[in-house]
Amino acid sequence: MNSLPSPTKYSQIEILRAKIQYWLARADKETNPKKRFEFLVTVQNLSRRLRFKDQGFFDWASVVCAALICVCVGVLIWKYRPKSFIYEWPEYSFRVLSQPDDYTFTLQLVERGMVHPPAVMHFCRDFQPQFEPGVTLTRLAYDDHGSCVSVAPENRGYSLLRDSAACPVVPANCHHSSPKCDPQTDHILCSGVPKFD
Prior knowledge:
eight-stranded antiparallel β-sheet, two-stranded antiparallel ribbon
């Protein structure tokens, strides 16, 4: 059984062009000036529609949808960004009390002379802290990622309380393993948990 060929599908622009040609041909043949003017107004309106289609005017629903997606992505980025904290001497300091592993420390915040209860801080694996129990941190700046804190990004990190010889200041029940506290070989040794004043 022979089927008829499917009709050619025309785009909106091709249809508008065909209508314009039709109305221009009618306007050329029309002798009545009033009717001719009506035909030319129709041609003008069709030309405007054609010009808008050619310049890429688009469906507003797609624009609104794209804008909503951008807003949602922006809100998600804002919501899940890490929170930054900066504590600096003389208002804040942290006493390092213990170190169960390379990235976990028990710290005690001292805020304007008031000592807070010890808290465990898990550092992210992007940077291993190089301090030991018995030191005092005079600056601690980090990004809180929820499960860990990161001191690796730019403008983050920590500083130790040091004496005039640039050695870390330690409590009375702690001492340095090397006499001149050489940064390459020195470790802080404490008798029990460091006892800060």
